[in-house]
Write a sequence for this structure.
């Protein structure tokens, strides 16, 4: 009995300790990555540090038993978004180092740091004098209880949040169209151009050497 | 009786059509349209008159409500017509003379670039005048009152590209405004006291002495402005800047008699106050004399007639103030005939001499104007009160009433009669007799580039038929019109016709002994003949007689100049102060300060918009920090 | 017994502050964009924490939506950046400041 009790309490303690450990590791990853993003000069390094932060966030999600979100975090953020960033950086060839010390606008940097610190202090002060959260629990469905996290999340999304969910679908389609439109190189057709523009274009083509001719 | 609606409607329709479609109509057409409308209105008036004649004398007052104009709480003001002997009498000669003058204008205004605008204003004037006399309450009358004021302004300033015409129009309007304030104060008093403007309510009430005096004097002030009496007579001579038919219609025959009408209409109010009656008769007599003296020494053919009009209007008020409203109205009608005739004849003279108005440059025109000359002569004899022409009878009635009121007033009237005969003789002699002096001046004008002067053989020509026909009709009226109210044989139609309006309670009957009447008549004839004789004697041979033309009279006793100096000068200075100091510096300065402060703050604030997106992000964070600070404060409490 | 939610929230606050400061300091548009992602993730973390705190699934649903919106935002934002860099190779956020007062 005692052993069982001991084992139980030690199991609880172990779970407790492991939760703290996961939190600590996640927090360390998050802060390291965030500092890296802010301070490193090479955009590629920044993107890689961002991946570390995102993994840290995923860890914290798991620590708070948000399993599905942790998976999505890794797949969408680390897998898609950051890759997209890296792709753009490489594609455009802008992976040169930024001169961090150069700052054209005065007061921008000290003010930025000051504001960041003040905001942090205010949040911490707020945490000391008031509750973090206030509200009625379990408005849109309990988090605890039987069933997996994925199942509960899915039920919430496909019932109570169905309309916003469908709207995100529309939003994604719009975003795709916008990306296509924005990145397409616009070649005006002859009918869209004034006669003067057409003349200009023709004369410009006539006088460009063929080896440097811009076909676009 | 539904023809009553046509009386104001026809000129209104004509005015509207001419206002919006005048430019599309060809030149004579708009004139004929206006004439037809005026004649139609006259015919409608005659129909109404005849139907009124068929009624009992006491039943000759009919109200026709068109619509409720001002329905405010207990105040109901109708746009309504009151057909009674007084208003119909006025309507008859307004539309009658108006028709003739509209017809005459077709010839006179021939070739004017703004031909149809003229006829628009004429029709609008006839409409306003009809509203003024037919309205069944003071407020609607005031509408017509202001309407004729506007039309008068528009017609005096018809040739507004002439500076003098524009100034004269302004002067007429402003001077009339002074009188209008009197009318308006009278309206306020009526509203305060009766809560109604209807003649029916107002004119059948008993009034206390001081209130009646105030009300009557305020109404009379309105009449003074419109009818050009002392002290507001100065605008009328200047109004001669308008086209001559306008002078005949508005500034001799009809509009200026609106004051006479107002006083006659308000007789039941005025009779409560003997002070008001004395004021009216004294002002009338004084105006008659003053204007007559000035008329003796004017050289402009129309200005003589204008001062004469002022003088004759004074006679009318003298008659009304003396309590004999019938005599005043009788003179009004007679005056409408012969003064319109004189003005139209003068217009024919001016027309013949191509816009020459100075009598010193006329002379001997009787040979060239075979119709105008006898017409003018008839008008002259009527105005000079030579029996048996119109003016004698009406003036005699007034003088008899004045004698009854006070022999002093009568003496002033007789003296004026002498002067009237004198200055009219002077005019006739200078214009139609003696040497022809226009020829030299015509040559001067021709040399000065005015080539069309007398190009047709160098001889003045008689006017076209549209102008001479009205002359003939008006001449006939001036010879025979007096039969409307002859003081013998039961022929006093006007007196009988108006009797229901002026019962003995309002205008107590007075009798002047027959012998006295004869004496008064003989004296006034004697004075008129004396004036005529002295005029002939003085002007038969000479054109310039400096001793008979003192500068003080030529400048109208310097009253105009004096008024300009004492009233206009300080007013101008005050206006300048307001305009340049108060408005220019203070008000504009305030406005500029406000706009300048906005511009300056904008110039400073635009620096915030740096264009750097990171600066904007900084602003957003600052805002977030401030909000957080606020939340912490609230959380702490 | 797990970690008290206050720890997570402080962590999220610090992460958010870092992201905001980075956004204000850095001039490379891509890095600024990454800082925005940091801030979004800080918010996500608070959502999940509150969800656990209040025993409410709604917070996690919100995180899901934030993820979707962030993905869409990245797509459009990167497209804009590509278009911008195509015009000028070495562009920073400060080079685009024509629209000023």
């Amino acid at each position: 009995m005692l052993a069982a009790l001991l084992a139980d309490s030690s199991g609880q303690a172990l779970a407790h300790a492991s939760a703290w450990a996961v939190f600590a590791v996640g927090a360390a990853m998050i802060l390291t990555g965030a500092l890296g993003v802010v301070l490193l000069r090479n955009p590629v390094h920044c993107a890689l540090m961002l991946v570390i932060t995102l993994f840290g966030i995923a860890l914290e999600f798991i620590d708070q038993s948000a399993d599905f979100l942790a998976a999505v975090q890794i797949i969408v953020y680390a897998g898609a978004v950051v890759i997209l960033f890296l792709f753009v950086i490489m594609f455009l060839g802008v992976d040169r180092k930024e001169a961090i010390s150069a700052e054209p606008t005065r007061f921008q940097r000290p003010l930025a740091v000051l504001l960041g610190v003040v905001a942090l202090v205010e949040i911490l002060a707020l945490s000391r004098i008031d509750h973090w959260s206030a509200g009625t629990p379990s408005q849109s469905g309990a988090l605890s209880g039987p069933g997996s996290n994925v199942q509960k999340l899915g039920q919430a999304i496909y019932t109570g949040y169905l309309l916003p969910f469908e709207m995100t679908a529309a939003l994604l389609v719009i975003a795709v169209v916008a990306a296509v439109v924005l990145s397409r190189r616009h070649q005006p057709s002859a009918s869209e151009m004034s006669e003067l523009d057409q003349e200009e274009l023709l004369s410009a083509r006539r006088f460009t050497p063929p080896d440097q001719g811009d076909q676009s | 009786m539904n023809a009553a609606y046509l009386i104001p409607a026809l000129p209104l329709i004509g005015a509207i059509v001419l206002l919006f479609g005048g430019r599309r109509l060809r030149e004579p057409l708009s004139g004929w349209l206006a004439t037809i409308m005026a004649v139609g209105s006259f015919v409608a008036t005659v129909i109404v008159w005849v139907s009124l004649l068929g009624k009992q004398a006491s039943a000759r007052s009919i109200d026709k409500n068109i619509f409720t104009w001002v329905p405010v709480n207990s105040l109901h003001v109708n746009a309504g017509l009151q057909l009674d002997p007084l208003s119909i009498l006025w309507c008859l000669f307004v539309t009658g003379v108006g028709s003739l003058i509209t017809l005459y204008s077709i010839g006179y205004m021939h070739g004017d670039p703004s031909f149809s605008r003229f006829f628009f204003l004429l029709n609008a004037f006839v409409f306003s005048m009809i509203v003024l006399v037919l309205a069944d309450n003071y407020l609607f009358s005031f509408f017509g009152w202001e309407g004729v004021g506007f039309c008068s302004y528009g017609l005096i300033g018809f040739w507004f590209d002439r500076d003098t015409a524009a100034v004269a129009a302004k002067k007429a309007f402003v001077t009339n405004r002074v009188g209008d304030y009197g009318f308006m104060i009278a309206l306020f008093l009526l509203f305060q006291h009766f809560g109604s403007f209807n003649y029916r309510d107002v004119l059948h009430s008993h009034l206390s002495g001081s209130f009646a005096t105030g009300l009557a004097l305020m109404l009379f002030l309105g009449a003074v402005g419109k009818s050009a009496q002392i002290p507001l007579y100065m605008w009328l001579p200047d109004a001669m800047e308008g086209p001559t038919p306008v002078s005949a219609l508005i500034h001799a025959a009809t509009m200026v008699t609106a004051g006479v009408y107002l006083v006659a209409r308000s007789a039941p109010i005025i009779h409560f106050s003997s002070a008001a009656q004395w004021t009216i008769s004294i002002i009338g007599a004084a105006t008659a004399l003053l204007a007559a003296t000035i008329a003796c020494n004017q050289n402009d053919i129309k200005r003589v007639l204008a001062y004469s009009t002022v003088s004759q209007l004074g006679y009318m008020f003298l008659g009304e103030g003396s309590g004999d409203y019938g005599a005043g109205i009788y003179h009004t009608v007679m005056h409408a005939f012969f003064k319109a005739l004189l003005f139209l004849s003068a217009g024919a003279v001016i027309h013949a001499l191509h816009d020459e108005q100075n009598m010193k440059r006329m002379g001997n025109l009787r040979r060239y104007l075979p119709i105008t000359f006898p017409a003018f002569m008839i008008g002259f004899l009527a105005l000079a009160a030579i029996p048996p022409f119109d003016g004698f009878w009406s003036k005699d009635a007034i003088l008899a009433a004045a004698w009854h009121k006070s022999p002093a007033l009568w003496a002033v009237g007789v003296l004026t009669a002498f002067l009237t005969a004198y200055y009219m003789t002077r005019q006739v002699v200078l214009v139609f007799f003696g040497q022809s002096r226009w020829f030299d001046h015509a040559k001067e004008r021709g040399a000065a580039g005015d080539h069309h002067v007398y190009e047709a053989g160098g001889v003045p020509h008689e006017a076209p038929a549209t102008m001479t026909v009205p002359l003939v009709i008006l001449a006939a009226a001036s010879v025979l019109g007096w039969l409307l109210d002859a003081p013998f044989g039961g022929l006093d139609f006007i007196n009988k016709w108006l009797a229901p309006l002026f019962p003995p309670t309002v205008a107590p009957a007075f009798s002047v002994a027959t012998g006295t009447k004869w004496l008064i008549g003989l004296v006034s004839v004697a004075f008129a003949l004396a004036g005529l004789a002295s005029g002939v004697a003085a002007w038969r041979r000479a054109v310039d007689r400096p001793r008979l033309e003192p500068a003080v009279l030529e400048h109208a006793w310097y009253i105009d100049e004096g008024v300009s100096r004492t009233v206009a000068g300080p007013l101008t200075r005050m206006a300048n102060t307001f305009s340049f100091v108060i408005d220019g510096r203070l008000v504009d300065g305030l406005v500029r300060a406000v706009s300048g402060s906005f511009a300056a703050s904008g110039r400073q604030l635009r620096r915030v918009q740096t264009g750097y997106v990171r600066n904007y992000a900084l602003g957003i964070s600052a805002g977030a920090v401030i909000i957080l600070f606020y939340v912490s404060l609230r959380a702490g409490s | 017994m797990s970690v008290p939610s206050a720890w997570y929230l402080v962590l999220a606050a610090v992460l958010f502050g870092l992201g905001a400061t980075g956004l204000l300091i850095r001039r490379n548009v891509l890095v600024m964009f990454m800082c925005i992602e940091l801030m979004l993730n800080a918010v996500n973390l608070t959502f999940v924490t509150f969800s656990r705190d209040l025993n409410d699934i709604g917070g996690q649903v919100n995180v899901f939506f934030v993820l979707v919106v962030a993905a869409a935002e990245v797509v459009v934002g990167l497209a804009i950046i590509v278009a911008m860099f195509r015009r000028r190779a070495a562009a920073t956020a400060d080079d685009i400041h024509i629209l000023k007062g």
